[in-house]
Amino acid sequence: MKRATGILMVMLAGLWVTPAVQAATGPEAVATISLGSYLLAWLFPVGVALVLVGISEGWSISDVAAMMPLALALAVVTELLSGFGLHYGGAVLGAEWQPFGEGWGLVGLAGMLPTAELLAGEAAAGALLYDLPLLTVALLPPLVVLRARRLTWLRYAVALAAGAVLYPVAGNWVDGGGWLQHLGLTLGLGAGFIDAGRLSLPLVTTLATLGVALALPRTEFSADEMPELRPAYLPLHVLLGSVLAWIGWLALTQRGGLDLAAILVNLWAVAGAVLLAAFYGWLARGAVEPGLIGRGLLAGLIVTSAVGANLSALSAFGLGGLAGLALAPLIYVFDRSLRLREQSGLLALLGVLTVVALLLPGIASQSSGVLAGHAPMQLYAQLLGLAALVVWGGVLPWALAVLGRSLAMLPQRLAERAAQEQLRLEERRAAASLPAQADAPAGSPGDDVGDDGPEPAAAPDELVSKP
Description:
This protein is mainly alpha-helical. 64% of the residues lie in helices and 3% in strands. The chain is built from 17 helices and 4 strands.
């Protein structure tokens, strides 16, 4: 704990003592940020990993703790292999595949296996570096949730596919010059798909994890097992991790500058989520649950991530409170109803609450929401974007997992069917070889044979006729 606090203080000091450097903080702009700001952005994956460790059961704590550096390593590998090119090939390098015309970009076509000369440019290197913390968080769901499956290699395969294909393609659509970003120009739907917090990208990998998990055998629970609010095994890890994740997320989304209005909106949402999560824990257990409070802080962070500063303080507090209050029931749904006990809180946070957050720009935003009196065009853009992300990130991996499982089990099913056919054939042969005594008569139809056998022969005297 002391070591983590010391590291945090060093990073906070870096905001003022480190020199400013020029780096691209996104695909469209180059901003002046300090080295300390970039280091603080890495607190986002570190904090999320600490929360996951804190809510893990005793036997899995060490395994979950090892997933953070593995997620970082896989993020670097997939970003350099194909992620950077598929994601930012259009916005940074100007090579976007637009098969249906201007504004309908589907994927970047340049920057795969980026060379040293390419990364020497400020725009390319900055975009790649800026994306790594978020990609690391996005790779945690498959690595953590799928850890208890029988196929130990499955979580690494899903993480590689998510980092190399699913995440960068969705990122291209959302903020890399793709079609969701330009829905306002192509279809006249508001300002296009809005996601100020960029949490739609971890949503894609979370949906992929959920789809694969639903396609595989899951844990069975006994009927008499009562639902309960499971406590955090390491509550201090959860609390510290949630605070670090919040600081890192602010550093990641502010992009080197401070949007005070957006920070205040997020603070109101976090306050509402923490208070209502504490109240729910008091109702359920008769005491405040630290693990639920820590996750409630993340719920408040997530629920207003997409709308940015376009939300009133009262609305932000209310939405955060609803998120904190709904967190435990959502965890129960994933835990018991869907039988996904492994890190059900992560699926609730990065899954359901992110979906709600992505709808808010079209519902509650002061500049584009229907509740503020605006036309529903922005809501249509958000719904269309969510539908595309769900199909790409959830339905497609689920279908591939179902197909893969069916193909893997096909030899076993064919062998079982062949064994059943062989057994039936042997039974028929055995039945045909048995004598049918009960169904057939003992003699031929012309024989004068009774039930008691043939009649005895006549005596010799009876054969001679009498006079």
